[in-house]
Write a structure and sequence with these properties.
- The protein is α/β, with parallel strands linked by helices.
- It contains 13 helices and nine strands.
- It has a domain of 183 residues: HybD-like (Rossmann fold, 3-Layer(aba) Sandwich), CATH 3.40.50.
- Strands 1, 2, 3, 4, 5, 6, 7, 8 and 9 form a nine-stranded mixed β-sheet that branches.
- Helix 3 crosses helix 12, helix 9 packs across helix 11 and helix 12 packs across helix 13.
């Protein structure tokens, strides 16, 4: 089975079914999909080592929210924020005394990687207020703190080491890590949010594996939230050829030549060619600035709604603005 780069458990499951050509249910993986209006929510539960090995993802629960019109529809944007908040609450036991640390992973100087820091800048951080003026703060407001630790290349320190040091001092009950992801499909960029209870490995989506942020390393529950912002260039090229084949007349000689090349072999050849001539290459849409601005606002709203109960969407939206 050939490898296509993706951080989404949903896509890993799709590729497993496609490449293995298996229609039967994989015992270690349970998938449930629901749809409301224009939003599709898919829950992928990996329950054993067989499922973990098949999908290449740790045992745990992965919830994917797909909202194709989020960039254009105000209603879908609001519904996505609410869906995200509901899923965060379902994964974490949050009460009046819960202290939450939100970690914005990524490099704010590289737009496709700036999701985490952008989300942190739009959060309702309240830990200092709960500490110093608790009498003026409603019990509906949770104790929230946040940090954007930067990346190893600019700090010289592993991100997980920074977060571990902060966590030891703050002693949070829950860590929420936000990061940009890699997808295998262009149409999932900016329209898909993944929430997982397995933690996160910063940079894993682009093959740059770092020390993980999870319950084992930090000692507390870690929820990972991510949005795809890049796609592997080889995947884009291979998918473009598939689209061209579908548009060509089946009697066309070029179509016959292209179809003779197995899709796995074609992807491998493209990836090797790109790697030898350019190096590792991922691509992102030209309007990525607008995308990051919109999705960071969406994720921040979802987190704020989840952590601060009884605040309306309009109140949260006013704060984020």
């Amino acid at each position: 089975m050939f490898y296509i780069r993706t951080d989404l458990a949903l896509e890993a499951h799709e590729m497993y079914r496609e490449q293995a050509k298996k229609e039967e249910k994989l015992d270690g993986v349970h998938v449930k999909t629901t749809q409301k209006d224009n939003i599709t929510v898919t829950e992928v539960k990996i329950s054993d080592e067989e499922g973990e090995k098949a999908l290449g993802k740790p045992i745990g629960t992965y919830i994917t929210i797909e909202a194709p019109q989020i960039m254009h529809s105000i209603e879908d944007y609001e519904n996505t924020c609410i869906q995200l908040s509901d899923k965060i609450r379902s994964m974490a036991q949050i009460n009046d005394d819960t202290v939450v640390l939100v970690v914005g992973l990524g490099n704010e100087n590289i737009t496709p990687d700036a999701l985490g820091p952008k989300v942190v800048s739009r959060l309702m951080v309240t830990r200092h207020l709960k500490q110093y003026i608790p009498e003026h703060i409603s019990s509906d407001i949770r104790s929230v703190c946040a940090v954007a630790p930067g990346v190893l290349g600019t700090t010289g320190i592993e991100t997980a080491e920074i977060i571990k040091g902060v966590a030891e001092k703050v002693k949070p009950d829950l860590v929420i890590a936000v990061d940009a992801l890699a997808s295998r499909r262009l149409d999932r960029i900016s329209t898909t949010i993944q929430i997982a209870d397995t933690g996160i490995s910063p940079g894993a989506g682009i093959g740059n594996f770092r020390m993980g942020l999870n319950q084992e390393s930090l000692g507390v529950k870690v929820i990972a939230i991510g949005v795809p912002t890049v796609v592997d260039a080889a995947t884009v090229a291979s998918d473009s050829i598939d689209m061209m084949i579908n548009r060509l007349n089946k009697d066309d000689s070029l179509c016959n030549v292209l179809e003779e090349i197995d899709s796995e072999e074609r992807h491998t050849l493209i990836a090797k060619s790109i790697s030898e001539n350019i190096g590792e290459l991922v691509v992102t849409p030209k309007d990525v600035d607008l995308i990051i601005d919109k999705v960071s606002k969406t994720v921040a709203n979802g987190i704020n709604l989840a952590l601060h109960q009884n605040l309306t969407f309009e109140e949260i939206e006013g704060y984020v603005e």
